[in-house]
Design goal:
Blueprint (H helix, E strand, L loop, with lengths): L3 E7 L2 E7 L10 E4 L4 E11 L3 E7 L11 E4 L4 E6 L6 H7 L7 E4 L3 E7 L5 E7 L5 E6 L1 E2 L4 E7 L6 E8 L2 E5 L14 E2 L26 E4 L1 H5 L29 H8 L3 E4 L3 E3 L17 E7 L10 H17 L3 E6 L11 H5 L28 H18 L3 E4 L7 H14 L4 E4 L26 E3 L1 H8 L21 H4 L20 E3 L9 H8 L5 H17 L3 E5 L19 H4 L3 H6 L1 H16 L8 H7 E7 L2 E6 L8 E9 L5 E4 L6 E6 L2 E2 L5 E3 L2 E4 L3 E8 L2
Parallel strand pairs: 1-7, 17-18, 17-26, 18-21, 21-22, 22-23, 23-24, 24-25, 25-26
Antiparallel strand pairs: 1-2, 2-5, 3-4, 3-6, 4-5, 6-7, 8-9, 9-13, 10-11, 10-14, 12-13, 14-15, 14-16, 19-20, 27-28, 28-29, 29-35, 30-34, 31-32, 31-33, 31-35
Length: 716
């Protein structure tokens, strides 16, 4: 029987807990035994808790982890010193930070070296499993510097299923390697693989030039949604390789899938999370659905999108094939990543390998929950930061990913995000980084959070602009709330800067961002209601035709404003989720891209494509610096219902000398008087668009109800 418990809470602080029923401890003295000598511990604080007495003791030496340490008292009672909150101290972080790039299973034909960072572990073993999930070999690993455990096995271990068995505080836990490059079906085991077998020939070495994030036109979709519809025309519906299929046709021979993306002219596809996640049984024949925000293994593609999830190689190869197929069509790929939380902390390898380190805890010693899913990743800790940097780098180097969208980025810290940006820049500075900078309740100082408020400290990282979103369509939290496109005028003043990339257009005015490269302009994404479904609530009394016009007014604002336009797949053909606002686990009939619906609205899609083509053809719509915008941009507000902007003095940067863009949110036509008597070309008017000009006008122009007009003067 142990009379007390002892925990290491700092490198030189031991906390001892006694039950109040323990005989008097007033005269107790405590000692540390490190296997070599005995050291006296000095009691510096004594507290009475509800059922225990807590003694805080100072050690004359820093206590080394990984050794068997005992604590005894003057009466001969003793207990093993357990790992406490020491692992969340800055000193621990500094002492045990490992900078090597060789964690995980490092394979070659003749040997494989396994390395795992587990500084608080007393013992670690490598376990090999057979196909039935039974352990058939176990190898003790050796502790090296910085708390890294390692073993090198000679021979060819390609295809072996493995886990680590880690003992911390006398408790053994089996865990999948955090740095696993491959996993078995449903991620039960790590798998040793020879990545040379997954090489996909790269014929797309010359993607279109991409100089600034404002040159991007981002189109968000979900791998399953993209092709699962019965009329998608894809053979491999819902799979990675559906993105490789060309010539797919929907109803009445309409273009679908990859051919449709090419036809739209978008520059980047953003894919919802496709690293290994929980929520779908990969080997079940039952139809299941999940967005993918339940991350489990961060460096392995999810098996539910593979044609054979039981073969660890297939998901790797098919993910690479998908990305290469998009690259060959000139489309870059942005990966949605979820480094802010894990699926379930209790079952996570992070908790099993180094308990208490990878997650944040509040002042009561309980896991914090700013994410709303039960845990927050402690990105500010050095080995967590290293893991995120290593993981992002792996997707760039091994899979050729072109960008990253950071889910709930406000949970993460600024230093980590900037370190990720720096690491990416060293590989390819054209890789785009964007994230959700929402300010969430996590125990991190406000000044250190990667939020919109702190965007000035992250100049090379873009943020989703919620002010833009809410001003255009109304609040996402009040379903009936209206924005500018739905008829409300109270947000009008916001557009003075929103059209300008949300920067300060004068020295007297504050901007949300320092650069247009930081503003992700959007009105719809996978979250919340689709715009069509919101309009059905906020403008329920209006006709379908009126709501369609309002939707395209929003699309035009997104595509013609300075900043980075972000479009949700299907919004161009009025995507509906039938009123479901959070469809993360809803069936295909709610989430799928409805290619039959796309066929119904081909004429509307022509305007969508024309707006994209105009943005790509004219640099004036995608200015990359605040200085350029301040020089060329002027706010126009001729009436409450008619707002927009003028871009002038463009001779050196664009084939158009001047551009006027006006948005009319009224159900009545609006007249605009031109300040000069020169000829202007109308290139967009209502549902018509022609970059060569629809007609020429002078003196005044009439803007149709609920529509956009774009005028230009061309060089003589």
């Amino acid at each position: 029987m142990n009379w007390f418990e002892a925990y290491l809470d700092e490198m030189d602080i031991v906390t001892i807990l006694f039950s109040k029923e323990t005989p008097s401890i007033n005269n107790h003295e405590f000692y540390l035994h490190d296997g070599i000598q005995r050291h006296s511990l000095t009691v510096i604080k004594k507290e009475e808790l509800v059922t225990e007495i807590k003694c805080t003791c100072k050690s004359p030496i820093d206590i080394e982890l990984g050794k068997f340490n005992l604590v005894s008292d003057s009466f001969g009672n003793q207990t093993e010193l357990l790992i406490g909150s020491v692992i969340r101290t800055e000193k621990f972080d500094q002492l045990y930070f490992y900078s090597g790039n060789d964690l995980g299973a490092n394979y070659s034909l003749t040997e494989t070296t396994f390395k795992v960072w587990a500084p608080s572990a007393e013992d670690v073993s490598l376990l090999f499993y057979n196909g039935k999930g039974t352990i058939h070999q176990m190898y003790p690993m050796m502790r090296e510097d910085k708390g890294v455990w390692t073993i090198t096995l000679h021979g060819n271990y390609d295809g072996y299923f493995y886990r680590y068995n880690v003992c911390v505080n006398k408790v053994w836990r089996d865990a999948v390697d955090l740095y696993a490059k491959a996993v078995s079906a449903n991620g039960e085991y790590g798998v040793v693989v020879d990545l040379t077998k997954t090489v996909v020939p790269k014929f797309s070495k010359s993607l279109p030039s991409f100089k600034s994030p404002t040159d991007a036109i981002i189109y968000e979709t979900h791998i399953r949604d993209f092709s699962i519809h019965p009329e998608s025309g894809a053979k491999n519906k819902g799979k990675y390789v559906a993105f490789c299929e060309e010539g797919t046709k929907g109803p009445y021979e309409c273009k679908t899938c990859l051919d449709y993306l090419v036809d739209l002219g978008i520059t980047h596809v953003e894919l919802l999370p496709f690293n290994d996640f929980e929520g779908i049984n990969e080997i079940s024949k039952q139809e299941q659905y999940n967005w993918g925000y339940n991350p489990v293994h961060y460096n392995v593609p999810d098996g539910s999108y593979a044609t054979d999830p039981s073969d660890p190689y297939v998901r790797i190869r098919e993910t690479k094939e998908m990305i290469e197929a998009l690259h060959q069509k000139g489309i870059r790929v942005i990966m949605d990543v979820v480094y802010n939380h894990v699926y379930k902390r209790e079952y996570s390898s992070f908790r099993k390998i180094v308990p208490g380190y990878y997650f944040r805890f509040n002042e009561f010693g309980l896991p914090s929950d700013g994410t709303g899913v039960g845990n927050d990743i402690a990105s500010e800790r050095l080995m967590v930061r290293k893991f995120i940097i290593d993981s992002v780098g792996y997707w760039v180097k091994e899979y050729n990913v072109d960008g990253f969208r950071f889910d709930l980025m406000g949970i993460l810290d600024i230093e980590t995000m900037n370190a990720v940006r720096q690491a990416i820049d060293e590989m390819d500075p054209s890789i785009i980084m964007l994230g959700e900078g929402w300010n969430l309740d996590t125990p991190l100082p406000e000044k250190d959070k990667a939020t919109i408020k702190n965007t000035g400290k992250m100049p090379r990282i873009a943020q989703f602009n919620d002010v833009f979103r809410n001003s255009v369509k109304g609040s996402i939290f009040d379903f009936s709330d209206q924005g500018f496109i739905s008829g409300d005028l109270r947000y009008n003043d916001n557009f003075k800067t929103l059209f300008a990339g949300s920067i300060a257009i004068t020295e007297e005015m504050d901007g949300l961002f320092q650069s247009p490269q930081q503003s992700v302009n959007y009105v719809e994404c996978h979250d919340n209601h689709t715009l069509w479904d919101k309009l059905e609530i906020s403008n329920a009394e209006e006709s379908l035709e009126t709501r369609r016009k309002r939707q395209y007014l929003a699309i035009a604002i997104v595509l013609l404003s300075q900043g980075i336009p972000f479009l949700h797949s299907g919004m161009e053909f009025f995507r509906t989720k039938y009123g479901v606002s959070n469809s993360y686990n809803q069936p295909d009939n709610i989430n799928q891209l409805d290619w039959a619906r796309k066929n119904m609205y081909e004429n509307d899609i022509l305007l969508f494509k024309a707006l994209i083509a105009m943005r790509k053809a004219h640099p004036a719509f995608r200015l990359s610096t605040s200085k350029e915008i301040q020089k060329h941009y002027k706010w126009l507000a001729p009436s409450p219902n008619l707002i927009g902007f003028l871009l002038d003095d463009l001779a050196e940067i664009d084939s158009w000398d001047e551009i006027i863009v006006l948005f009319n949110n009224s159900v009545l036509p609006k007249e605009y008087l031109l300040e000069d008597h020169e000829h202007w070309n109308v290139v967009v008017s209502g549902d018509q668009a022609d970059l060569n000009g629809i007609e020429q006008i002078t003196k005044k122009v009439m803007i149709e109800p609920l529509s956009t007009i774009v005028l230009c003067k061309t060089k003589i």
